[in-house]
Design goal:
By secondary structure, this protein is α+β, with helices and mostly antiparallel strands. 46% of the residues lie in helices and 20% in strands. It is flat and about 125 Å long.
């Protein structure tokens, strides 16, 4: 019985369902417990009732929540329109949050990487500065300089360099090596500069190359580990090395801050060590962090973000490279100034950076507006799409039942309207497509019949002639083709052999092939000479061929009484001749008598007759002749390579002693193996003639 009102429905749900009854019971227990709490009588009992009532209400709420979820999923999620609406809501909100997070994280990564690059770049410039100072001072300490002048010369160089690097120090260190190839005694040690950061080196390690050296080094000083830029250069003519050190002191750190806004706070290196109490060499398998001192800190409020940069330094004793981690702070404004370069003049009350930030804010506001518009358009589009899809679904149901007269109303001129129009056109043309399918099947059946008829025009069964073994094969690329071969008995001792290839493929080539067969059957009985037969065939057939068509032919006459084979070639593939057992040499020959193709209409046949050549070959026991069309030699594999005439000649030579049928099967097998899965693109025809 249907409820008469919403009140009746709620009352029925509360009294007839498990969740409703449980909810009523829980509320009743809560009321009893509340009443008991007011009276103060047996509080333990009423507390228990209150707990049970709360559990009943909780269970009822869970059941109600599950029922609401099931109804919502049925009524919302299982409808395409509401699915699209929810999708567009997520498209309009979630991407904005993700884009904001992405650009925030990306901006921070960009800021950190640029600031680290700035620090590394400035440190590199200090190392390069030390290298420049060493290379510039080395030539001034050449062998021509008096020993007493070495220290003053170094002091002069150090004084000039201290303007740029206040703590720069020079040292001329004697060595046992002569990197300039000049013998002599080492120059005495000379130093210039404060050398406050560490003691001047007493020797040059053997790993330092003669080409010089420049890198960061680490050293122990009061308060921890420090770093400096060191460069080594070799003065010409001296068995000494010039060492230039630029320590990273407070002045240099302050320069970093003034020029780039970078405040170096601390740095840390990893020193590898091992227990060598047993006398074994140290193993570089363990490490400990050695923090450096806090060099300087300015407390600038424009440097809110801290980061680290990883630099390489060289162990002065061993020459091995290690890493040093530099902790620093840098503000966003410093990175912005570094990336933007020199600023432009102020425009009214704004500079260029403020204008760009204002434009960025405008773009962000437009982005939010576009998102809101996209959400509204998405809701409208969802309704339009689902309505059109519903109509298409109804139309497909009608078509499935065989009703092709149903039409869908076109309500818009967008792609959905075009889809409805396409559906109407499809239903209107289904019957026509069915008729076309039936017509196509009929044509395919007729082509199969035509193929059977064309194959019947070729020689059927073996041709018996004393002393001659013949074998022929024709394999069209399509249902019908333009290749043709024939065996023409002329008398008891003479046999005509013809192979031809009509240009093109398909039905037109097959019709020209049938016409050629009738013409050759007639002319072969009238003309003994292959040359005369081809000339007459060209004269007749050129009047009937299409201007874009032509025929290549080879016609040979085997005369067993005279033991000769006479042939003429009208633009066809070469003739392969493998001498027999009685020949002095069985080297295969490729015969290419001159001749034009049949059917060209540029003259009355004079050029064809003038160029056509006839050759006569004496026959011997075991001689082999291979006649073929270009479908054999030009068979392609999947890589586009052709089988080629040379492979065919090699096969004929290698297996010349096989019977003609066996040799034919061997050649065709090799061709198909070479082609593999590649589609056959041309007719393949072959004739084998073997003399016994």
């Amino acid at each position: 019985m249907e409820p008469h009102s919403r009140y009746d429905a709620v009352r029925g749900w509360l009294t007839r369902t498990f969740a409703g009854r449980l909810l009523i019971a829980g509320v009743a227990l809560k009321l009893v417990a509340w009443t008991g709490a007011l009276t103060g009588w047996r509080p333990g009992l009423f507390n228990t009732l209150d707990t049970v009532g709360g559990l009943a209400i909780l269970v009822s709420a869970l059941v109600i929540g599950y029922r609401v979820y099931a109804i919502a999923r049925h009524r919302l999620l299982w409808r395409v329109r509401r699915k699209l609406i929810l999708s567009y809501i997520f498209i309009g909100v979630v991407p904005v949050i993700l884009v904001a997070i992405f650009f925030t994280v990306g901006g921070l990564l960009f800021f950190f990487n640029v600031s680290a690059f700035m620090l590394r770049n400035h440190v590199t410039s200090v190392v390069e500065g030390a290298q420049f100072l060493a290379q510039a001072a080395a030539p001034a300490l050449a062998s021509g300089t008096a020993v007493a002048q070495l220290t003053p010369a170094l002091t002069t160089r150090q004084t000039a360099a201290s303007v740029r690097y206040p703590l720069v120090s020079y040292a001329l260190v004697p060595t046992d090596r002569s990197c300039n190839g000049e013998p002599g005694d080492p120059a005495p040690k000379a130093v210039a500069g404060p050398w406050r950061h560490m003691e001047a080196p007493r020797s040059i390690p053997s790993w330092v190359p003669c080409t010089g050296f420049s890198s960061l080094i680490a050293y122990q000083a009061e308060g921890g580990t420090r770093i400096a830029a060191r460069a080594v250069a070799w003065p010409p003519g001296l068995r000494s090395a010039l060492v230039v050190d630029i320590p990273f002191g407070d002045a240099l750190i302050r320069e970093f801050h003034d020029e780039m806004g970078i405040t170096i706070e601390a740095y840390t290196i990893v020193e590898m060590f091992a227990d060598t109490s047993d006398g074994t060499p140290p193993a570089r398998s363990q490490g400990r962090m050695l923090p450096g001192p806090v060099n300087i800190r300015f407390g600038d409020e424009n440097e809110p973000l801290g980061w680290v940069a990883f630099l390489d330094y060289t162990d002065w004793k061993t020459g091995e490279m290690s890493g040093v981690t530099v902790g620093f702070r840098m503000g966003l404004a410093a990175v912005y100034r570094y990336l933007s370069g020199p600023s432009f003049e102020r425009l009214d009350n704004f500079n260029l950076g403020q204008i760009l930030l204002l434009l960025l804010g405008i773009v962000g506001g437009l982005f939010l507006i576009i998102q809101a518009v996209a959400l509204v358009m998405g809701l409208t589009l969802a309704r339009s799409i689902t309505g059109s899809v519903h109509e298409l679904f109804g139309g497909t149901e009608r078509v499935q039942r065989g009703d092709f007269s149903h039409k869908i109303a076109i309500r818009s001129r967008d792609q959905l309207g075009e889809l409805a129009g396409s559906f109407n056109s499809m239903t209107a043309s289904i019957e026509g497509l069915l008729r076309e399918k039936a017509e196509k099947e009929r044509l395919e059946q007729e082509l199969l019949i035509a193929r059977s008829i064309q194959m019947s025009l070729l020689p059927q069964g073996p041709l018996e002639m004393p002393g001659v073994s013949l074998s022929g094969h024709c394999e069209p690329a399509r249902e019908v083709g333009g290749d043709y071969y024939d065996f023409l008995p002329l008398d008891d001792d003479r046999l005509g052999i013809l192979i031809a290839d009509v240009s093109g493929k398909g039905t037109s080539a097959a019709l020209y092939m049938a016409e050629l067969k009738g013409l050759v059957l007639s002319l072969s009985l009238q003309y003994v000479s292959p040359r005369r037969m081809l000339i007459e065939a060209n004269r007749i057939i050129s009047k009937h061929l299409d201007s874009r068509s032509f025929i290549t032919m080879t016609y040979a006459v085997v005369d067993m009484r005279a033991r000769t084979m006479t042939c003429a070639r009208a633009g066809h593939c070469p003739l392969i001749y493998v001498p027999g057992l009685d020949a002095a040499s069985r080297t295969p020959q490729v015969l290419t008598p001159e001749g034009m193709v049949v059917g060209l209409q540029f003259d009355v046949g004079d050029a064809f007759e003038r160029l056509l050549e006839e050759v006569t070959i004496p026959l011997g026991r075991g001689d082999l002749f291979v006649l073929y069309t270009d479908g054999i030699s030009e068979a392609m594999n999947p890589e586009g390579d052709c089988f080629g005439d040379h492979r065919l000649v090699e096969l004929a030579h290698r297996h010349a002693d096989l019977a003609s049928d066996d040799l034919q099967k061997r050649i065709l097998s090799e061709v198909h193996t070479f082609a593999g899965d590649a589609a056959q693109h041309d007719d393949m025809t072959m004739v084998l003639v073997k003399i016994h």
